[in-house]
Protein backbone atom coordinates (compact mmCIF):
# COMPACT_ATOMS: atom_id res chain seq x y z
CA UNK A 1 0.00 0.00 0.00
CA UNK A 2 1.36 3.40 -1.02
CA UNK A 3 1.93 5.83 1.86
CA UNK A 4 1.45 9.53 1.21
CA UNK A 5 2.27 12.33 3.59
CA UNK A 6 -0.38 15.06 3.72
CA UNK A 7 1.20 18.41 4.58
CA UNK A 8 -1.22 19.45 7.31
CA UNK A 9 -1.57 19.66 11.06
CA UNK A 10 -5.32 20.29 10.70
CA UNK A 11 -6.95 17.15 12.11
CA UNK A 12 -10.37 17.99 10.57
CA UNK A 13 -8.81 18.21 7.14
CA UNK A 14 -6.76 15.04 7.69
CA UNK A 15 -9.86 13.05 8.68
CA UNK A 16 -11.75 14.36 5.64
CA UNK A 17 -8.90 13.46 3.28
CA UNK A 18 -8.61 9.95 4.76
CA UNK A 19 -12.36 9.43 4.24
CA UNK A 20 -12.12 10.61 0.61
CA UNK A 21 -9.00 8.58 -0.22
CA UNK A 22 -10.44 5.37 1.21
CA UNK A 23 -8.39 2.29 2.06
CA UNK A 24 -6.23 2.14 -1.07
CA UNK A 25 -3.62 4.52 0.35
CA UNK A 26 -2.12 5.12 3.76
CA UNK A 27 -2.43 8.85 4.48
CA UNK A 28 -0.09 10.25 7.12
CA UNK A 29 -0.37 13.68 8.71
CA UNK A 30 2.57 15.75 9.90
CA UNK A 31 1.91 14.73 13.51
CA UNK A 32 2.33 11.08 12.49
CA UNK A 33 5.97 11.77 11.66
CA UNK A 34 6.52 14.31 14.48
CA UNK A 35 7.04 17.16 12.03
CA UNK A 36 6.18 20.51 13.55
CA UNK A 37 8.18 23.10 11.62
CA UNK A 38 6.34 26.12 10.26
CA UNK A 39 5.37 25.56 6.62
CA UNK A 40 5.73 28.59 4.32
CA UNK A 41 2.59 29.84 2.60
CA UNK A 42 3.49 33.12 0.92
CA UNK A 43 2.14 32.80 -2.62
CA UNK A 44 -0.67 35.01 -3.96
CA UNK A 45 -2.37 31.99 -5.58
CA UNK A 46 -3.87 28.73 -4.32
CA UNK A 47 -1.75 26.67 -6.72
CA UNK A 48 1.38 28.56 -5.66
CA UNK A 49 0.70 27.91 -1.97
CA UNK A 50 -0.13 24.22 -2.52
CA UNK A 51 3.10 23.74 -4.50
CA UNK A 52 5.16 25.71 -2.00
CA UNK A 53 3.90 23.62 0.93
CA UNK A 54 4.32 20.28 -0.87
CA UNK A 55 7.84 21.12 -2.07
CA UNK A 56 8.88 22.28 1.40
CA UNK A 57 7.68 19.00 2.96
CA UNK A 58 9.21 16.89 0.18
CA UNK A 59 12.60 18.61 0.58
CA UNK A 60 12.51 18.09 4.36
CA UNK A 61 11.30 14.47 4.39
CA UNK A 62 11.99 12.97 0.91
CA UNK A 63 8.55 11.32 1.23
CA UNK A 64 5.89 11.21 -1.47
CA UNK A 65 3.53 13.91 -0.28
CA UNK A 66 0.75 16.31 -1.13
CA UNK A 67 -0.55 19.65 0.09
CA UNK A 68 -3.66 21.63 -0.61
CA UNK A 69 -4.74 25.23 -0.49
CA UNK A 70 -8.34 26.28 -0.44
CA UNK A 71 -10.07 29.58 -0.96
CA UNK A 72 -13.60 30.91 -0.69
CA UNK A 73 -14.36 33.47 -3.40
CA UNK A 74 -17.40 35.67 -2.81
CA UNK A 75 -18.77 37.59 -5.81
CA UNK A 76 -19.98 40.63 -3.85
CA UNK A 77 -16.56 40.90 -2.17
CA UNK A 78 -14.68 40.93 -5.50
CA UNK A 79 -13.43 37.38 -4.92
CA UNK A 80 -12.33 37.90 -1.32
CA UNK A 81 -11.26 36.26 0.92
CA UNK A 82 -9.69 33.95 -1.72
CA UNK A 83 -6.14 32.95 -0.91
CA UNK A 84 -6.50 34.66 2.51
CA UNK A 85 -9.54 32.57 3.57
CA UNK A 86 -7.87 30.95 6.59
CA UNK A 87 -6.73 34.29 8.04
CA UNK A 88 -9.37 36.64 6.65
CA UNK A 89 -10.14 38.20 10.05
CA UNK A 90 -6.42 38.63 10.80
CA UNK A 91 -3.40 36.58 11.83
CA UNK A 92 -4.18 34.04 14.55
CA UNK A 93 -7.94 34.35 14.02
CA UNK A 94 -10.39 31.50 14.45
CA UNK A 95 -12.80 30.39 11.72
CA UNK A 96 -15.65 31.80 13.81
CA UNK A 97 -13.99 35.21 13.40
CA UNK A 98 -13.72 34.71 9.63
CA UNK A 99 -17.39 33.70 9.40
CA UNK A 100 -18.42 36.74 11.45
CA UNK A 101 -16.47 39.02 9.12
CA UNK A 102 -18.03 37.50 5.98
CA UNK A 103 -21.56 37.73 7.41
CA UNK A 104 -20.95 41.33 8.49
CA UNK A 105 -19.61 42.32 5.06
CA UNK A 106 -22.56 40.67 3.28
CA UNK A 107 -25.18 42.14 5.61
CA UNK A 108 -27.94 43.66 3.43
CA UNK A 109 -26.38 42.37 0.18
CA UNK A 110 -28.65 40.23 -2.01
CA UNK A 111 -25.95 38.71 -4.24
CA UNK A 112 -24.47 36.04 -2.01
CA UNK A 113 -22.95 33.87 -4.76
CA UNK A 114 -19.67 32.21 -3.81
CA UNK A 115 -17.30 29.50 -4.94
CA UNK A 116 -15.00 27.23 -3.02
CA UNK A 117 -11.78 26.37 -4.88
CA UNK A 118 -9.13 23.85 -3.93
CA UNK A 119 -5.77 23.04 -5.49
CA UNK A 120 -3.87 19.90 -4.48
CA UNK A 121 -0.18 19.56 -5.30
CA UNK A 122 1.14 15.99 -5.29
CA UNK A 123 4.86 15.27 -5.36
CA UNK A 124 5.52 11.65 -6.17
CA UNK A 125 8.89 10.26 -7.28
CA UNK A 126 10.13 13.85 -7.24
CA UNK A 127 7.59 15.04 -9.84
CA UNK A 128 4.93 17.68 -9.17
CA UNK A 129 1.29 17.27 -10.24
CA UNK A 130 -1.59 19.74 -9.68
CA UNK A 131 -5.29 18.88 -9.30
CA UNK A 132 -8.09 21.43 -9.01
CA UNK A 133 -11.63 21.23 -7.73
CA UNK A 134 -14.38 23.77 -7.24
CA UNK A 135 -18.00 24.05 -6.16
CA UNK A 136 -20.45 26.94 -6.59
CA UNK A 137 -22.96 28.01 -3.99
CA UNK A 138 -24.14 30.88 -1.84
CA UNK A 139 -23.29 32.28 1.58
CA UNK A 140 -26.22 31.83 3.95
CA UNK A 141 -27.39 34.66 6.20
CA UNK A 142 -26.68 32.66 9.34
CA UNK A 143 -24.73 29.60 10.48
CA UNK A 144 -26.42 26.24 9.92
CA UNK A 145 -25.08 22.86 11.03
CA UNK A 146 -22.51 21.63 13.49
CA UNK A 147 -20.29 19.40 11.35
CA UNK A 148 -17.48 20.30 8.99
CA UNK A 149 -15.01 23.11 9.64
CA UNK A 150 -13.97 26.45 8.25
CA UNK A 151 -16.74 28.23 6.34
CA UNK A 152 -18.89 25.06 6.11
CA UNK A 153 -21.73 26.43 8.32
CA UNK A 154 -22.39 29.33 5.91
CA UNK A 155 -21.74 27.68 2.52
CA UNK A 156 -24.79 26.27 0.74
CA UNK A 157 -23.73 24.43 -2.45
CA UNK A 158 -25.86 24.88 -5.57
CA UNK A 159 -28.59 22.27 -5.94
CA UNK A 160 -28.66 21.37 -2.24
CA UNK A 161 -30.74 22.38 0.76
CA UNK A 162 -28.08 21.84 3.41
CA UNK A 163 -24.88 23.73 4.16
CA UNK A 164 -21.66 21.71 4.16
CA UNK A 165 -21.88 21.73 7.97
CA UNK A 166 -25.35 20.10 7.87
CA UNK A 167 -24.41 17.36 5.39
CA UNK A 168 -23.23 13.88 6.31
CA UNK A 169 -19.51 13.54 5.50
CA UNK A 170 -20.04 11.16 2.55
CA UNK A 171 -22.32 13.68 0.81
CA UNK A 172 -20.08 16.69 1.43
CA UNK A 173 -16.96 14.78 0.36
CA UNK A 174 -18.67 13.68 -2.85
CA UNK A 175 -19.37 17.23 -4.04
CA UNK A 176 -16.88 19.47 -2.24
CA UNK A 177 -14.02 21.40 -3.80
CA UNK A 178 -11.46 19.32 -1.89
CA UNK A 179 -13.27 16.10 -2.73
CA UNK A 180 -13.28 16.94 -6.45
CA UNK A 181 -9.56 17.78 -6.45
CA UNK A 182 -8.71 14.64 -4.47
CA UNK A 183 -10.82 12.38 -6.71
CA UNK A 184 -8.73 13.64 -9.64
CA UNK A 185 -5.56 12.85 -7.70
CA UNK A 186 -6.95 9.43 -6.79
CA UNK A 187 -7.65 8.61 -10.44
CA UNK A 188 -4.14 9.71 -11.35
CA UNK A 189 -2.58 7.55 -8.59
CA UNK A 190 -4.59 4.50 -9.64
CA UNK A 191 -3.41 4.94 -13.26
CA UNK A 192 0.21 5.26 -12.11
CA UNK A 193 -0.18 2.20 -9.90
CA UNK A 194 -1.32 -0.08 -12.76
Describe this structure in words.
This protein has helices at 11-21, 46-61, 95-105, 169-175, 177-192; strands at 2-6, 25-28, 65-74, 81-82, 113-124, 127-139, 155-157. The chain is α/β, with parallel strands linked by helices. The longest helix is centred in the N-terminal third of the chain and has 16 residues, at 46-61. It has a single domain (2-192), classed as Maf protein (Alpha-Beta Complex), CATH 3.90.950. α1 links the parallel β1 and β2. The model has no long low-confidence stretch (mean pLDDT 93). The protein contains five helices and seven strands, in the order βαβαββαβββαα. It is globular. Strands 1, 2, 3, 4, 5, 6 and 7 form a seven-stranded mixed beta sheet that branches.
Amino acid sequence: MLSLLFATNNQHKLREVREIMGNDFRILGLKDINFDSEIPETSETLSGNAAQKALFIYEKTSMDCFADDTGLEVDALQGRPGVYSARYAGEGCRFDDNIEKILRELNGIENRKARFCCVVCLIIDGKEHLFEGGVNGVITKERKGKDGFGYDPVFLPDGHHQTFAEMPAYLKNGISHRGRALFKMLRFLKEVDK
